[in-house]
Write a structure and sequence with these properties.
Blueprint lengths: L7 H8 L10 E5 L3 H13 L5 E5 L2 H9 L15 E4 L8 H10 L8 E5 L4 H9 L4 E4 L4 H18 L7
Parallel strand pairs: 1-2, 1-3, 3-4, 4-5
């Protein structure tokens, strides 16, 4: 391979050492399934790109966290997320309704929202993008497949993508 040709692994290794990529991002995981939460956290941990991941289990709790309401009113840990991973089928308030509310709020619409859901329904995909989702990722069936998705996700959001510095 010529010296100037790099493969993805080389790029990941070089980019991961840049100082601007050492700062973890705050990710809000909105997921109601305990097993999916454990799998997601385990896969992110195994990907070895450090992020601050906060977990909430329904749509109302997601909005409370983001707007610092209810139990998050005086919590220092409740920071505005840099990125939101949002399931569609949530209790109390659906993922679609959370997404729609965030994208209608001029103070929050800049936050990238990735729909991370088991639905592969074309209508859900279209609706997610219509409401302003940044990406739509169907959850793979196996843990090994999910690890690959998280690794690619981490590479994209932490190495390639540039998030606005609004903090």
């Amino acid at each position: 391979m010529p010296e100037n040709d790099l493969n993805i692994k080389d790029i990941k290794d070089k980019e991961a050492t840049k100082p601007e990529n050492k700062e973890p991002i705050d990710i809000l995981l909105v997921e109601d399934n305990d097993q999916d939460i454990k799998i997601t956290l385990r896969a992110f941990s195994k990907a070895k790109i450090k992020n601050n991941i906060h977990v909430v289990v329904d749509g109302q709790e997601a909005l409370d966290y983001i707007y610092n309401n209810e139990k998050y009113k005086n919590v220092k840990d409740a920071t505005t997320p840099d990125l939101i991973l949002l399931d569609i089928g949530l209790p109390k308030i659906s993922g679609f309704d959370v997404l729609k509310k965030l994208k209608e709020d001029s103070n929050l619409k800049h936050i990238p929202v990735v729909m991370l859901t088991s639905s592969k329904n074309e209508e859900d995909i279209v609706k997610s993008y219509d409401y302003g989702a940044s990406s739509y990722i169907p959850k793979p069936v196996s843990y090994e497949e999910f690890e690959k998705v998280v690794d690619g996700f981490n590479f994209y959001w932490n190495i390639i993508n540039k998030l606005p510095d609004l903090k």
